[in-house]
Structure formats: C-alpha cells, structure tokens
Task: structure prediction
Amino acid sequence: MKSKKTESSTSWLYSPSPESTAHISLRESYDLYINGKWEKPISGKYFDSINPANEKHLAKIAHADQADIDKAVKAARKAYDTAWSKLSGSERAKYIYRIARIMQERARELAVIESLDGGKPIRESRDIDIPLACNHFFYYAGWADKLEYAFPTRKVEALGVAGQIIPWNFPLLMAAWKIAPALATGNTVVLKPAETTSLTALKLAEIIHDAGLPPGVVNIVTGFGDTGAAIVNHPDINKIAFTGSTNVGKIIQKAIAGTSKKATLELGGKSANIIFDDAPIDQAVEGIVNGIFFNQGHVCCAGSRLYVQESVAEKVIQKLKDRIQTLYVGDPLDKNTDIGAINSKEQLQTIDKYIKIGIKEGAEIYQPACNLPKKGFYCPPTLFTNVAQSNLIVQEEIFGPVLTVQTFRTVDEVIQKANNTPFGLAAGVWTDKGSRIFNLTTKLRAGVVWANTYNKFDPSSPFGGYKESGFGREGGVHGLSAYVKLS
Ligand code: NAP
Ligand code: MG
Result:
C-alpha cells in the first residue's frame, strides 16, 4: 500500500493493514446464470474483469447477447407462470430470508470481492455495502406475506418478469435494491450488472442457487450496454428497473415509449450540501467529506456542490483543506484507506476531463499532495473554489471525488442555487434550527434531504429523484409499489 504522504503537521502515517484475500475463491471464468444453471453464452464471447486498484485480471465474464437474453426471459416467464406466482407470500419470504442469511454468512468474502472488482475501500464494502444489501433482503422478506397491509383495501398482483439493469458504484447493494422487492411481490427477474463490476452479482447467483430458489426465478446475465438494451427491448418483459446515468435513462425511456412496460429510473445527481453559520462546523466538515469523498465520489447522491454561508466560509474551507490532507488515498483492501481506486480508466478520464474544464473555467483548484500508486486508477480529493453557478463543474455530474464550493448570504438565495441544476436526487442541510430544516425540506427539489448528516441509508426509507434524476422510489413500502399492479 502506498499510503498518502501529507504535508500537514497534524497528520501521521499508519502502517499498512491489508485485508486478506486468502479466504475468497474466484472461478477463471463465469458463465450466465439462466434457469438455475450456468450457461455458456451462445456467441462464445467473454470479456475481462480487472481490479482497478492495480489493473490485474480477475476473471473472464460471459457477454450475453439477444439470444441469451431471450433464453433468460423465457426461463423467468416459465418460473413466474409455473412456480413463483403459485407460492404464498410466506413461502416466498422463506426463500428471501435464506438469501439474506447466506449473504451474511459469506459477508467477508463478498466485501473483499466488491473491493477487488470495483475499487471501493474495504471499510465501506465491509461496513456499509454488504450489511445494507443483506438488510434489504431481510426487510423485503418481511413484507412478502404482508402485502395486503402495505396496500390496504387493494387487490395486489405481481407484474410478471422484471428486467433490471444496475451500475457499478454499489454493485451488490444495487442488485439487492432491485431483486429483493421484486421477489417479495412475486415477480421473477433478469438482472444485468455493470460490465466493470459483475463479480458480486455472480456470487449472488451462487447464493440464490444455494438458497434453492426454483430455477428461472432469478437470472443473472452479464455483458455491456448492448446486453442491457436487449433486456429493455425484449417484448416479454413487464417492467424495467434501471439505475444508471441520465443519458442511458433517456435512451431507455424512448425505447419503451408506447409499450405496456412499466419503468422506474434511478439516474444521476448533483446534490447540494448546505452549511449555515449556526451549524456545528466540525461535524459539518465531516459530513461534507463523507458526502463527496465516500466511495471516491461514485455516489449518485454525492454532495458534490457545497454552499457555505458567507460569514463562516473562510473557516469551513480551511477546515476542509486541513481534513482532506489527512485522507488516505490508495489500496482499497487496506483498512486505513479512505479513498480507493476510481472504478475504471474511462471514469478516471471523465473526472480528469472535468478537472481540466474547472481550471479552464477559472475556478481555483486545491488538491493535497498525494503519493498515488503507480498502477491503477486514482484521483486525489479535489476542491474547487471561486466557481460560478453556470460553470459546467457545478451543473454536470462528475461522479468522482470533486467538490465545488460556493458561498451564499440568504436562505432564498441558497434554495434557488441548490435547485438550479437539471438534477434533484438529494441534498444536505446543516443548521442548529429545526424550523430552518423544515423550511428547506419543503423547498429543495430533491428526493432525499438529510439534516445534520449525509449519505445515510436504510431499507425502510424510500430513495429516488426529481427532474433528470429519474422517477419511482426504491426502498420502504414505496419500493413495493414499483413491482405491483393494484386494483
Ligand atoms: P450507465 O453507463 O448508465 O450504466 C448503467 C447500466 O446500464 C450498466 O449496467 C450499463 O452496462 C447499462 N447500459 C449501458 N447502455 C445501455 C443501454 N443503451 N441500454 C440498456 N442498458 C445500458 O451508468 P454507470 O456509469 O454504470 O453508473 C453511473 C451512473 O449511475 C451515474 O450517473 C449515477 O448517478 C447513477 N446512479 C444513480 C443511482 C440512483 O439511485 N439514482 C444510484 C447509483 C448510480 P455497462 O456497464 O456494460 O455499460
Ligand atoms: Mg472490475
């Protein structure tokens, strides 16, 4: 591990503390999980999954095409008609609980593979991603036999076959967000993980297999954008659940227009974190750091725009600079690491492109001195001050550890600025006044508003966007309604 060497007199270096990889096993190559079996792709094509921390090859992954997707959808339809829709809610719940428990048993292995394949710090995959993913299965297992209480006086029916497409930033967690409510409500599933992070979804297929689910209830198909498009365009799919970029979300919306397919789209964000002068400043600084540097800024709801009330701006910016000097950037498997590897070379290029744009737009950049590893994809934590609301780095999603800082004087001004992007996923408010929090929560056009905290998730809380951040809610009772027909 190449730990960060800082110039700060207040920071120190920890000895490396790498998590062991001895307890995990990966196959040389992974096929498609269709109808309860591992099937070779019809085209015979495979692609490589690499570790973004050192660019080493991890496994070969099958590339599914339209013919494979057709097989998976047929299997899901058959499983829906003959097995899953015939089970009572309490029987479905038993299977879902079983998945959750096996995931818990294999949590350590899942955490290490998540960090190896995706680049996120082991502390996060171990303490956040994997436990939350298990909790989603536990939570929705609990609803499976209580749907009449979730929708009192209504008749509740499953939709049928759900096609689910997920991104690379929370691979196993996003799979859980998609699969758990679909199964609880009686649907069957064809799920595609992102091409750079297929491994934990494939491990989940092993777990689902071990849990003894009837064949075809969950099918995991891997591949690129064309594989996702084949799911979206398949005529026998009843529902598309997509999490990913706004651009692909728009393509999907066009593709399903005029069909009877239902859709939920969880898309990009450019969320505002707002600090008032009466906020507990040290906690707020921790919240800002967590909001944007957590998971290398690969978080749809990352607090990527900071608005600080003018009277405390100097103090907050100084404390932020001091704090980010102490962050460890490096090996994701080191338990000391705060910022791991950027998920792919392409994503690093995108982030670098925006950093150059920011400098060209006249913003002032601050990056602490870092010894970045020579191999792999890394980006130091980056602050931009002296930015204008119209700058591209304020308006567009960067999806990396890059924070823009602006100041404000009045509540009305900050509400206007916070709402002034095409997105509306999340926001954070830091203040001592409860009344101010309530005022802002009603005026910020964001699906989630955190108060005096940031990036807190729970399976019982709904999550989703306004405007170009998408529509539909995942999590909580709301997450059930995305998978049912009510009459
Ligand atoms: P992406 O490029 O849109 O990809 C998302 C998924 O869609 C991947 O599995 C991708 O496959 C697949 N895909 C690509 N082109 C497709 C097409 N034409 N038709 C169907 N599927 C297609 O997004 P990403 O770069 O993986 O993820 C980052 C984005 O996700 C960010 O914008 C982030 O804000 C958003 N996100 C949103 C939420 C939320 O809840 N709102 C949560 C997490 C992430 P490949 O991997 O093979 O390209
Ligand atoms: Mg990978």
